[in-house]
Amino acid sequence: MSLAEVTRNCFQCGVAPSKWISLCKLFISKLPPIDSPETVASHLSNSVLVLYRSYPGNPGLKEYLECAIEDGILPLFTFVSTFLQAARSPELDTPITLDHLCQIALEVQKRSDSQVANSLVPYSESQIVILGTIQDGLALLRTVHTLPISQHHNELASRTEELVRHLLCFASDISQVSVAQACVSFADVNDLLNNFRFNLETRQMLESFSMLLGLLIGDDAKVAREAQMMQSLQLALGKGDTGGPASDTDVITLGLVHHYLVVILCIDILLRSQVSKISHRAHEFGAGNTLGVVTLLVYIFRWSSWTPTVFYTQLILSALIGLTQHPTDCTIWKAFIVGRLPNLISAFEAIVSADHAMVSDWRGGFRSGLISVFQRPDIIIQCDHTLSEGGGSNMITEENMPSSFTRELLQQFVKLELIDKVLGAQLDPSISKENMSKLSSDTHDTSMDFSLYLESRLTPDMARNDAQSWLDRIWRDAGTHTTFANFVLKKFSSLVTAVDVESLSQLCKLLYTHAIALDIVALHVKISDLLFHALLFLDSYDCETIGDPQTAVSHLGDVVLFVQYTLARFQFDTTTFTKDGRSISTAFLKSAFTVYPVENLPPNELLSFNGWFKAIFDSSSEGIEDTILRSTQPKILLRISATLFSQAIKAASTQKIDKDVLFNGVSYFTGPLLNWTLVGVIKALSQEILLKGLSAPIHIEILQTLVLSSSCPQPVLALCSPQILRLLSELGKDGAKTSMIDVDQVTLSEIQTITAEPFLDDPKSRVQIWQQDPQKALQNVFLQARSHKTPVLDVERCLRMIPVTKFLQMMWMDLFESAKLGEMESCKRIATFVLTMPRCSNVPPLLPIFIHLVLPSLIAAADRQQPQDQNISVELFVAVISCVLSAALHLEWAMVTVYGNDRVPLGQASSAVARRLAADLGSKRRSPTSQNIVQRLVASQSFTANFPMFIAEL
């Protein structure tokens, strides 16, 4: 629990302000003396301010703040500082909220001028900090004067100006302020004076402050203006086609990338809820593949033309914003930001530092970027708030004692030597006082490193509840995640090499029954390597030489279930996994869903089928003997299981075998010996029932027996739940009643695999809904960008619903509408993400398809537009073409830098795409749009330097 949770719970329960203060003091007294009183006061103030996001202008929150200031636990200057910093967030720009907060500051200041604690700014504060507070006040002034006119606008504007005037009174001696900071304030003040109307007193004070800053800057102002002119000139000449007024504050590009790496939230239209998707986390360019992620970071850095400081600022800031947007997935975001992102930054720096063509002060840039991030307390506060609501605990124990999220992040940066302890202490003075976690303390007490500690805990006799508790502790300590993931991968490989089926079975079961374990591993190592080792084991394991085949086959089943579950959970569409020059196929898993005509089975499979049918479904059989287990390959048993059920049901339907014999045979599949084969069996039974309906009573009864069995493995239910839910819906139509309806639908819904598409009850509306879903996803991504949030767009999901060309045409329509609103920067970045981010292998290459198939029809349509719309279209065409081709080129260069090969990740080399596009545009002499596009592209020196083939088409 944290102060934010105490405040939230008290407020929501209607606790009086005085009682709330007493509870806060009691809570603070029980915490370790890590934070200073100033830090505690800031946390207290922020705990109330953050609630204004959910309760704009609530008078109860105003009473809480007034009571805290009056009590003295919250000094006025601390409240003003935290309020002005929080007001930079667009989520706090409700007029009535800002009016209440300004009113508190002014009223307290007026009635207690003689009290030091109730000064707007501490009298002993340095001028550097005071100027920072004034800058926050100027930002509030700008915000207020750009808000829509409302009933509170005049009062709010008046109070804001009064507050700023009071703050300016503290700017007496600014000689210690740096020229850089003075230049920023100088630019802010003059921009306000030039663009907004203030009352006479406010204008005079702003002009006086501007003059004071001008005197401090002196001739350095000329240097700054010249540098700005040079930058403008470079942009005019085309250096960095993504440049623009908002490029240095862009969180769209890296926000989309973070969602691509970690998790994507899709909107289920029917359920009107968010459905978590694993996205690319386990794929070639996902979070677990260090080289793949570094490739993306190198490509984005080069393409964006950002300085290292700006790049690092946006990289970290966009990740933090992503966390705040996803309270239901906040713990996986924290695991990524604290446990994985520092390692990726370290790997990125190692690559770019070795590239002599990219000479920069990388370490200095990272430090400056980190400082910039910590100057956004509104985001940091919201992160802590999101984590406290989405992943917090209501009881404080030694195990879950609250710890600052950003402090954990700083500790990881210090651990990896990305920053030194001095900077860490400057950003968070309590970093050196933070006690190690209980898990780290336990490891330290054993005098073992963490890998050996993990080895000692992972024992065959570990109970499931103990395993869950143990994994929960690891999950909470993000600093241990890298070690845990590497341990799992190394352990997996060694067990496969040693052919230790019992220990491998235990490890596989740990991973497929505890989602957090698999999530940790997927963030840090390549899941494809785990799958390769598991498939290699299944491919080479020989049951003929083992002493106890019954136990061995049961253990082998856990490996099969792990492979099936992991393939589906992480949405692998590939049928082959390759490592160290060897390839293993997953085709045998897909064949398990099919019922084969017995006469078409190959001789070896037919022999196994006859032997197993006799052993299971023959009344004279003595059961499953060791001999048949030794002689049957697990792959073959998996392949023939669905066919065994089909033939047994046919035999029972024609009275060739008794029903008791049938269900006696079915009972073998409810135990650990054969229940790992059930994914294919249940899917085949479900399909047969859908075809025959209620005329398949035996199928229904068998399916119910298997699904409701207490020993049915969790992965089986997760993988089969979409089919079962659809079946329940079909059987339940028109009031149909069958024993199958006894299946616990709620339980199945809860465990429904996140890889499955949400089931649609009305097949007739399916096409319409599928078309609306991508359209809504595209509209949402622009709305999120417009709201200064990190956008989310699952391109692969959209392409599973509608054809590629239809999706790209939809995207262009939304790009055009946003361009009409002047949002060209957002258009460029979103289009670049869609067209140039590497996709799964089953997705066709979007860049060549867009340029060669979709673009010509868009240009032809633009030729028929009105002049005003045609001008916008030309601007958009030029911006998108130049951006995506340059981005594709930088991605290819990044592949060479990181991997050392010239593999083309987008289906066609950027030079080939550009060459054909240039020829196509040049051939359309009668198309004014085509000619305008060529002329505009050729005018960019940087573009023609990379793609000179366009010059010949003038």
Radius of gyration: 32 Å
**Shape annotation:** globular
Helicity level: 55-70%
Euclidean distance between termini CA atoms: 67 Å
Structural category: mainly alpha
Q: How many extended strands?
A: 4
Largest sheet: 2 strands, antiparallel
Low-confidence stretches: 219-246, 265-276, 392-398, 743-771
Main β-sheet, spatial strand arrangement: 1-2
Give the strand content.
Answer: under 5%
What is the number of domains?
4
Mean pLDDT: 83
Give a quick precis of the structure.
The protein has 954 residues and is an all-alpha fold. The chain has 45 helices and four strands.
Secondary-structure topology with pairs:
Blueprint: H1 3-12, H2 17-29, H3 37-49, H4 59-71, H5 76-86, H6 95-111, H7 127-146, H8 153-168, H9 179-195, H10 200-217, H11 220-236, H12 252-261, E1 264-268, E2 273-277, H13 290-304, H14 308-325, H15 330-354, H16 362-374, H17 377-390, H18 405-415, H19 421-427, H20 438-445, H21 450-457, H22 464-476, H23 481-498, H24 501-513, H25 515-524, H26 527-540, H27 549-569, E3 576-579, E4 582-585, H28 587-590, H29 603-617, H30 626-631, H31 634-653, H32 659-667, H33 678-692, H34 697-707, H35 714-731, H36 745-751, H37 766-786, H38 795-799, H39 804-820, H40 824-836, H41 846-863, H42 867-899, H43 910-923, H44 928-938, H45 941-946
Antiparallel strand pairs: 1-2, 3-4
Helix pairs in contact: 1-2, 1-3, 2-4, 3-5, 4-6, 5-6, 6-8, 7-8, 7-9, 8-10, 9-10, 12-14, 12-40, 13-15, 13-42, 14-15, 14-16, 14-17, 15-18, 15-25, 23-24, 23-25, 23-26, 24-25, 24-27, 26-27, 27-35, 29-31, 31-33, 33-34, 33-35, 35-36, 37-39, 39-40, 39-41, 39-42, 40-42, 41-42, 41-43, 42-43, ...
InterPro entries: Mediator_Med5_fun
Keywords: Activator, Nucleus, Transcription, Transcription regulation
Subunit structure: Component of the Mediator complex.
